[in-house]
Structure of Glutamine synthetase:
Amino acid sequence: MRSSVRFMTAGSLLLWTVYASAQNPLLANCTRSGNLLACVDGYGNAYSVQTSGDTLYTRGFEAVSHRYWAQTNSRYGQLTFFTGLASDGESWVGYNRRVGWTTINRFSSSGGSKGAFICSRLNGCQDSPR
């Protein structure tokens, strides 16, 4: 009985998701299996997220630029380091650190981009002094 109720609930949720994504191309259609989440939006962008312990693997495809990318995040307590690489050769590195309800974020890329911002539950995200 319980499995049929879960199946009916999951089926209803899936139908609602398909209906909603057909109505709004900004909503992604996602599938989850164990520790893998895969999503595609109405514009053809796609990404997947897989977890393994304290490591998070993310891969994606940007439809407009036809660019594939991959990023790995490794967490050590309150500190998370990430590195990424795109099919056009761009690479990036960065970290974020949680301090209470605040997250301090820094990143830089081989394309010359760099940034620092602070996010909190109370004030949202703001540029940070470097």
Notes: The longest strand covers residues 67-76. Strands lie at 29-33, 36-40, 46-52, 55-62, 67-76, 79-86, 91-99, 102-109, 114-120, 124-127. Residues 1-71 form one domain.
